[in-house]
Amino acid sequence: MTPLDIVEFGVYGLLAIAMTLLCLLSCNLLWLAITFWRHQSQGQSLATQRTAPTPDDALPRVLIQIPVFNERHVVRRILGAAAALDWPQHKLTIQLLDDSIDETRGIAEAAVQELRAAGVDAHRLHRVDRTGFKAGALHAGLAVTDHPYVAIFDADFIPRPDFLRRTVGVLENDKKLAFVQGRWEHLNGDENRLTRAQTLMLDAHFGIEQPARSMTGLPLPFNGTCGIWRRAAIDDAGGWKADTLTEDLDLSLRAHLKGWRARYLSDITVPGELPSSVAAWRVQQFRWTKGFTQVACKLLPTIWRST
Q1: Is the entire prediction scored with pTM above 0.85?
Q2: Is 156 a catalytic site residue?
Protein backbone atom coordinates (compact mmCIF):
# COMPACT_ATOMS: atom_id res chain seq x y z
CA MET A 1 0.00 0.00 0.00
CA THR A 2 1.44 3.35 -1.06
CA PRO A 3 1.52 6.44 1.20
CA LEU A 4 -1.21 7.95 -0.97
CA ASP A 5 -3.39 4.88 -0.42
CA ILE A 6 -2.86 5.16 3.36
CA VAL A 7 -3.90 8.81 3.32
CA GLU A 8 -6.95 8.03 1.21
CA PHE A 9 -7.89 5.16 3.54
CA GLY A 10 -7.55 7.46 6.55
CA VAL A 11 -9.72 10.15 4.96
CA TYR A 12 -12.46 7.68 4.13
CA GLY A 13 -12.22 6.23 7.63
CA LEU A 14 -12.68 9.64 9.23
CA LEU A 15 -15.57 10.36 6.87
CA ALA A 16 -17.24 7.08 7.84
CA ILE A 17 -16.87 7.90 11.55
CA ALA A 18 -18.30 11.39 11.01
CA MET A 19 -21.26 10.04 9.05
CA THR A 20 -21.93 7.42 11.73
CA LEU A 21 -21.90 10.04 14.48
CA LEU A 22 -24.15 12.30 12.41
CA CYS A 23 -26.57 9.42 11.89
CA LEU A 24 -26.64 8.66 15.62
CA LEU A 25 -27.24 12.32 16.42
CA SER A 26 -30.06 12.50 13.90
CA CYS A 27 -31.68 9.39 15.36
CA ASN A 28 -31.40 10.87 18.85
CA LEU A 29 -33.04 14.12 17.74
CA LEU A 30 -35.80 12.19 15.97
CA TRP A 31 -36.43 10.14 19.12
CA LEU A 32 -36.60 13.31 21.23
CA ALA A 33 -39.06 14.86 18.79
CA ILE A 34 -41.30 11.77 18.89
CA THR A 35 -41.05 11.73 22.70
CA PHE A 36 -42.03 15.40 22.83
CA TRP A 37 -45.16 14.88 20.75
CA ARG A 38 -46.16 11.79 22.76
CA HIS A 39 -45.81 13.62 26.06
CA GLN A 40 -46.92 17.07 24.92
CA SER A 41 -49.97 17.19 27.20
CA GLN A 42 -47.74 16.38 30.19
CA GLY A 43 -45.32 19.09 29.15
CA GLN A 44 -48.12 21.62 28.88
CA SER A 45 -49.32 20.77 32.37
CA LEU A 46 -45.79 21.19 33.75
CA ALA A 47 -45.34 24.49 31.97
CA THR A 48 -48.62 25.94 33.20
CA GLN A 49 -48.51 24.62 36.75
CA ARG A 50 -48.64 27.21 39.49
CA THR A 51 -47.67 26.85 43.11
CA ALA A 52 -49.72 28.24 45.95
CA PRO A 53 -48.71 31.80 46.95
CA THR A 54 -46.31 31.90 49.89
CA PRO A 55 -46.37 34.76 52.41
CA ASP A 56 -43.34 37.00 52.03
CA ASP A 57 -42.15 36.23 55.56
CA ALA A 58 -41.94 32.52 54.68
CA LEU A 59 -40.00 32.98 51.44
CA PRO A 60 -36.37 31.78 51.37
CA ARG A 61 -33.33 33.92 50.72
CA VAL A 62 -32.20 34.03 47.10
CA LEU A 63 -28.84 34.98 45.63
CA ILE A 64 -28.64 36.45 42.12
CA GLN A 65 -25.28 35.85 40.45
CA ILE A 66 -24.36 37.87 37.36
CA PRO A 67 -20.97 36.92 35.87
CA VAL A 68 -19.55 39.76 33.78
CA PHE A 69 -16.48 40.23 31.62
CA ASN A 70 -16.16 43.48 29.65
CA GLU A 71 -19.92 44.02 29.28
CA ARG A 72 -20.00 47.82 29.47
CA HIS A 73 -23.07 48.16 27.23
CA VAL A 74 -25.40 45.88 29.21
CA VAL A 75 -24.13 45.80 32.81
CA ARG A 76 -26.46 48.55 34.00
CA ARG A 77 -29.43 46.91 32.28
CA ILE A 78 -28.97 43.51 33.91
CA LEU A 79 -28.42 45.07 37.35
CA GLY A 80 -31.63 47.05 36.95
CA ALA A 81 -33.54 43.93 35.91
CA ALA A 82 -32.16 41.97 38.87
CA ALA A 83 -33.11 44.73 41.31
CA ALA A 84 -36.63 44.81 39.82
CA LEU A 85 -37.28 41.13 40.59
CA ASP A 86 -40.43 40.66 42.65
CA TRP A 87 -38.97 39.35 45.91
CA PRO A 88 -38.73 40.73 49.46
CA GLN A 89 -35.81 43.11 49.43
CA HIS A 90 -34.35 41.80 52.70
CA LYS A 91 -34.26 38.27 51.25
CA LEU A 92 -32.62 39.10 47.93
CA THR A 93 -28.89 39.57 47.37
CA ILE A 94 -27.33 40.52 44.03
CA GLN A 95 -23.74 39.57 43.24
CA LEU A 96 -22.09 41.17 40.23
CA LEU A 97 -19.14 38.87 39.56
CA ASP A 98 -17.06 41.36 37.61
CA ASP A 99 -13.85 40.03 36.05
CA SER A 100 -13.68 42.94 33.61
CA ILE A 101 -10.45 44.62 32.55
CA ASP A 102 -11.97 47.58 30.66
CA GLU A 103 -14.21 50.53 31.54
CA THR A 104 -16.94 48.10 32.60
CA ARG A 105 -15.32 48.17 36.04
CA GLY A 106 -16.17 51.82 36.66
CA ILE A 107 -19.66 51.56 35.17
CA ALA A 108 -20.41 48.46 37.24
CA GLU A 109 -19.13 49.95 40.51
CA ALA A 110 -21.21 53.11 40.02
CA ALA A 111 -24.34 51.09 39.20
CA VAL A 112 -23.90 48.85 42.26
CA GLN A 113 -23.42 51.86 44.54
CA GLU A 114 -26.63 53.40 43.16
CA LEU A 115 -28.52 50.21 43.97
CA ARG A 116 -27.07 50.09 47.47
CA ALA A 117 -28.09 53.70 48.04
CA ALA A 118 -31.63 52.67 47.08
CA GLY A 119 -31.62 49.92 49.71
CA VAL A 120 -30.77 46.96 47.44
CA ASP A 121 -28.36 44.37 48.85
CA ALA A 122 -26.01 44.49 45.86
CA HIS A 123 -22.31 43.66 45.81
CA ARG A 124 -19.58 43.79 43.18
CA LEU A 125 -16.92 41.11 43.45
CA HIS A 126 -13.93 41.98 41.28
CA ARG A 127 -11.18 39.43 40.75
CA VAL A 128 -7.75 40.51 39.55
CA ASP A 129 -6.83 36.88 38.90
CA ARG A 130 -9.44 35.34 36.54
CA THR A 131 -8.60 31.76 37.50
CA GLY A 132 -11.38 29.45 36.32
CA PHE A 133 -13.07 32.22 34.31
CA LYS A 134 -16.87 32.00 34.69
CA ALA A 135 -16.78 28.85 36.82
CA GLY A 136 -14.15 30.44 39.04
CA ALA A 137 -16.23 33.60 39.45
CA LEU A 138 -19.37 31.63 40.36
CA HIS A 139 -17.39 29.55 42.86
CA ALA A 140 -15.85 32.67 44.43
CA GLY A 141 -19.29 34.22 44.83
CA LEU A 142 -20.70 31.17 46.55
CA ALA A 143 -17.74 31.08 48.94
CA VAL A 144 -18.94 34.25 50.68
CA THR A 145 -22.66 33.43 50.90
CA ASP A 146 -24.96 30.72 52.24
CA HIS A 147 -28.21 31.44 50.39
CA PRO A 148 -30.23 28.24 49.76
CA TYR A 149 -31.15 29.24 46.19
CA VAL A 150 -28.96 30.75 43.49
CA ALA A 151 -30.31 32.27 40.27
CA ILE A 152 -27.82 32.88 37.46
CA PHE A 153 -28.16 35.36 34.60
CA ASP A 154 -25.60 36.26 31.96
CA ALA A 155 -25.23 39.98 31.41
CA ASP A 156 -27.00 40.03 28.04
CA PHE A 157 -30.28 38.61 29.40
CA ILE A 158 -33.18 40.44 31.05
CA PRO A 159 -35.18 38.42 33.59
CA ARG A 160 -38.82 39.40 34.02
CA PRO A 161 -39.93 40.60 37.48
CA ASP A 162 -41.93 37.42 38.20
CA PHE A 163 -39.04 35.00 37.51
CA LEU A 164 -38.37 34.13 41.16
CA ARG A 165 -42.04 33.94 42.09
CA ARG A 166 -42.53 31.30 39.41
CA THR A 167 -39.41 29.21 40.00
CA VAL A 168 -38.56 29.14 43.69
CA GLY A 169 -41.86 27.51 44.58
CA VAL A 170 -41.18 24.67 42.13
CA LEU A 171 -37.89 23.93 43.91
CA GLU A 172 -39.50 24.27 47.33
CA ASN A 173 -42.22 21.74 46.42
CA ASP A 174 -39.81 19.10 45.08
CA LYS A 175 -36.76 18.64 47.28
CA LYS A 176 -34.99 16.43 44.72
CA LEU A 177 -34.86 19.10 42.04
CA ALA A 178 -31.38 20.52 41.56
CA PHE A 179 -32.46 23.40 39.33
CA VAL A 180 -35.21 24.88 37.21
CA GLN A 181 -34.29 26.03 33.71
CA GLY A 182 -36.17 28.77 31.88
CA ARG A 183 -36.49 29.24 28.14
CA TRP A 184 -34.37 31.69 26.17
CA GLU A 185 -36.12 34.35 24.12
CA HIS A 186 -34.32 36.53 21.60
CA LEU A 187 -34.14 40.31 21.74
CA ASN A 188 -32.48 40.55 18.32
CA GLY A 189 -33.77 37.45 16.56
CA ASP A 190 -34.68 39.42 13.43
CA GLU A 191 -31.52 41.53 13.27
CA ASN A 192 -29.92 39.66 10.37
CA ARG A 193 -29.73 36.28 8.67
CA LEU A 194 -27.33 34.92 11.27
CA THR A 195 -29.58 35.76 14.22
CA ARG A 196 -32.61 34.35 12.38
CA ALA A 197 -30.74 31.07 11.80
CA GLN A 198 -29.74 30.95 15.48
CA THR A 199 -33.35 31.57 16.47
CA LEU A 200 -34.47 28.53 14.49
CA MET A 201 -31.80 26.29 16.01
CA LEU A 202 -32.29 27.46 19.60
CA ASP A 203 -36.08 27.35 19.37
CA ALA A 204 -35.80 23.69 18.35
CA HIS A 205 -33.57 23.04 21.36
CA PHE A 206 -35.78 24.92 23.83
CA GLY A 207 -39.07 24.02 22.19
CA ILE A 208 -38.59 20.26 21.69
CA GLU A 209 -35.36 18.82 23.08
CA GLN A 210 -35.42 20.39 26.54
CA PRO A 211 -39.13 19.63 27.19
CA ALA A 212 -38.65 16.01 26.07
CA ARG A 213 -35.73 15.57 28.44
CA SER A 214 -37.61 17.17 31.31
CA MET A 215 -40.75 15.06 30.74
CA THR A 216 -38.90 11.73 30.62
CA GLY A 217 -36.34 12.29 33.39
CA LEU A 218 -33.35 12.28 31.05
CA PRO A 219 -30.33 14.38 32.04
CA LEU A 220 -31.31 18.01 31.52
CA PRO A 221 -28.40 20.33 30.73
CA PHE A 222 -28.28 23.64 32.53
CA ASN A 223 -27.86 26.33 29.89
CA GLY A 224 -25.59 28.61 31.91
CA THR A 225 -28.18 31.34 32.42
CA CYS A 226 -31.90 31.88 33.03
CA GLY A 227 -32.07 29.22 35.72
CA ILE A 228 -32.13 28.84 39.48
CA TRP A 229 -30.17 26.25 41.45
CA ARG A 230 -30.61 24.69 44.85
CA ARG A 231 -27.35 25.43 46.69
CA ALA A 232 -27.37 21.99 48.31
CA ALA A 233 -27.32 20.35 44.86
CA ILE A 234 -24.35 22.46 43.73
CA ASP A 235 -22.39 21.49 46.83
CA ASP A 236 -23.40 17.82 46.65
CA ALA A 237 -22.26 17.60 43.01
CA GLY A 238 -18.85 19.03 43.86
CA GLY A 239 -19.40 22.68 42.98
CA TRP A 240 -18.37 24.63 39.92
CA LYS A 241 -15.34 23.20 38.11
CA ALA A 242 -13.18 25.00 35.57
CA ASP A 243 -11.67 21.96 33.83
CA THR A 244 -14.08 22.26 30.86
CA LEU A 245 -15.34 25.17 28.79
CA THR A 246 -18.97 24.22 29.50
CA GLU A 247 -19.06 24.33 33.28
CA ASP A 248 -22.88 24.47 33.17
CA LEU A 249 -23.22 21.12 31.36
CA ASP A 250 -20.54 19.59 33.58
CA LEU A 251 -22.28 20.56 36.83
CA SER A 252 -25.75 19.53 35.68
CA LEU A 253 -24.51 16.06 34.66
CA ARG A 254 -22.60 15.60 37.91
CA ALA A 255 -25.75 16.55 39.82
CA HIS A 256 -27.76 14.03 37.78
CA LEU A 257 -25.23 11.31 38.62
CA LYS A 258 -25.73 12.18 42.29
CA GLY A 259 -29.46 11.49 41.96
CA TRP A 260 -30.73 15.05 41.52
CA ARG A 261 -33.36 15.86 38.93
CA ALA A 262 -34.07 19.07 37.02
CA ARG A 263 -37.10 20.66 35.47
CA TYR A 264 -37.54 22.78 32.37
CA LEU A 265 -40.51 25.15 32.23
CA SER A 266 -41.11 26.50 28.74
CA ASP A 267 -43.39 29.35 29.77
CA ILE A 268 -40.75 30.92 32.01
CA THR A 269 -38.99 32.96 29.36
CA VAL A 270 -36.00 35.28 29.64
CA PRO A 271 -35.09 37.45 26.64
CA GLY A 272 -31.45 37.81 25.69
CA GLU A 273 -29.20 38.86 22.85
CA LEU A 274 -27.81 36.51 20.20
CA PRO A 275 -24.34 36.94 18.64
CA SER A 276 -24.97 39.17 15.65
CA SER A 277 -21.62 38.78 13.90
CA VAL A 278 -20.01 35.69 12.44
CA ALA A 279 -16.86 36.27 14.52
CA ALA A 280 -18.80 36.33 17.81
CA TRP A 281 -20.91 33.34 16.78
CA ARG A 282 -17.81 31.30 15.88
CA VAL A 283 -16.28 31.99 19.31
CA GLN A 284 -19.51 30.85 21.01
CA GLN A 285 -19.79 27.70 18.90
CA PHE A 286 -16.13 26.83 19.48
CA ARG A 287 -16.64 27.06 23.24
CA TRP A 288 -19.79 24.94 23.15
CA THR A 289 -18.30 22.28 20.86
CA LYS A 290 -14.98 22.00 22.67
CA GLY A 291 -16.70 22.13 26.06
CA PHE A 292 -19.12 19.36 25.11
CA THR A 293 -16.19 17.18 24.03
CA GLN A 294 -14.30 17.93 27.25
CA VAL A 295 -17.32 17.00 29.38
CA ALA A 296 -17.78 13.78 27.38
CA CYS A 297 -14.16 12.77 27.94
CA LYS A 298 -14.42 13.67 31.63
CA LEU A 299 -17.75 12.05 32.54
CA LEU A 300 -18.50 9.29 30.01
CA PRO A 301 -16.50 6.67 31.97
CA THR A 302 -18.47 7.55 35.13
CA ILE A 303 -21.76 7.54 33.23
CA TRP A 304 -20.90 4.15 31.70
CA ARG A 305 -20.12 2.65 35.09
CA SER A 306 -23.37 4.01 36.54
CA THR A 307 -25.61 2.22 33.98
Answers
A1: yes
A2: no
